[in-house]
Specification:
359 residues; 11 strands; elongated; alpha/beta; 9 helices
Length: 359
């Protein structure tokens, strides 16, 4: 979910946009001033789009001030020239400025005309918005996001699992797991989280009564999230992860299944594991929750901001690394001698006897 700031383009900027699409302007910088999108600077075309890229963009980037850059390519589509939309958000810029520009990004794109924007690039360093950085961005767009082993395993299971009808108030066994009904108060809190009234819901299994129950709904920040994970009991967690990615402010609902290894009984581990997939189905298909990511952990300390960012937005690899065969141990002993077959032993003895007779 992305949020808008209510900032709109000034009349002068709208008039300039209308004139800039004829092919003379190469680059436009847009700033936010006095709660308006305004024209910061524009530069006319000098050479080809590749020749102009670094020479015209780099002088427009300020060390501590975010901005938007619209860069015209030499190619056209049905609506006219194609443009690249660059979002500049340097690391040393004030946090408030970063959030303001992130929340207004969609407004500028819509105002300019999304149909003419061919690519969008987000940068925090000058290298990100260089010609080499832009070409690396294009290469990464072509590469598929890598799957972890757990994701590959989950993908295989989903292809082979048997579907069964599951209801909020039903309990029955299906191929992938056991479905427990979710308590009414837990379902109500899930709905509140869906509506944005809560940012954290913790659920547990009442093994004795065979129900999914509510445990915790305390307001929780990303820094506080690890402390919410019990060290001796399994839990299900729903967390609204508020963050920015490539210039967009996002609120992503993450489903977290925590299982602290062998500190739990075998029965508890089996039931939590079996009830997980049916619970996710209830949350998504019956309670209408949009789960952006499903994560399994054994220790709450894993839930750092960087970990969640990597899980939600995995880095794309343009080249898949080949598997490297590991080296053998350095202290490996001598090669094992194999036992001779009887016929080989006879031949060797004959050879020795012949050599002895010659001597």
């Amino acid at each position: 979910m992305s949020h808008q700031t209510g900032i709109e383009a000034s009349d002068d900027l709208l008039a300039f946009f209308a004139r800039s699409k004829e092919g003379e302007v190469r680059v436009i910088r847009v700033d936010i001033e006095d709660e308006q999108l305004v024209l910061g600077k524009s530069v006319d075309t000098v050479g080809s789009w590749e020749d102009d890229f670094d020479k015209l963009i780099r002088p427009l980037l300020m060390e501590k001030q975010p901005c938007y850059i619209l860069y015209r390519l030499d190619t056209q589509n049905d609506m006219g020239y194609e443009w690249v939309f660059l979002s500049w958000s340097p690391d040393f810029a004030p946090v408030r400025q970063k959030m303001l520009y992130a929340g207004t990004r969609s407004t500028l794109k819509k105002t300019f005309g999304g149909g003419q924007i061919k690519e969008e690039v987000f940068g925090t360093t000058v290298e990100d918005l260089s010609l080499d950085g832009y070409k690396k961005h294009l290469d990464s767009q072509e590469a598929p996001a890598p799957l972890t082993f757990a994701e590959e395993e989950l993908q295989f299971i989903k292809k082979n699992e048997v579907n069964a009808e599951i209801g909020v108030d039903s309990k029955h066994q299906s191929m992938p797991g056991v479905t427990f009904p979710i308590s009414q108060d837990a379902a109500d809190k899930v709905q509140e989280l869906k509506m944005g009234e809560l940012n954290y819901v913790q659920l547990s299994l009442d093994i004795k009564n065979e129900r999914i129950c509510l445990e915790n709904t305390d307001d929780t920040s990303t820094a506080e999230l690890p402390s919410r994970v019990p060290t001796d009991q399994a839990r299900y967690h729903l967390f609204v992860f508020k963050h920015t990615h490539e210039g967009d402010y996002m609120e992503s609902i993450v489903f977290i299944y925590s299982m602290p290894g062998y500190k739990c009984s075998i029965k508890e581990r089996m039931l939590y594991s079996s009830a997980k997939s049916p619970l996710v189905d209830i949350l998504e298909n019956h309670l209408g929750l949009e789960l952006i990511k499903k994560i399994e952990i054994s220790d709450g300390a894993e839930l750092t901001e960087d970990f969640l960012q990597d899980e939600l937005h995995p880095k794309k690899n343009a080249v898949k690394q080949a598997f490297a065969k590991p080296k053998g141990p350095s202290n490996r002993g001598p090669r094992r001698m194999t036992k001779q077959r009887p016929e080989e032993a006879v031949e060797n003895n004959n050879d020795v006897e012949e050599q002895g007779s010659v001597i």
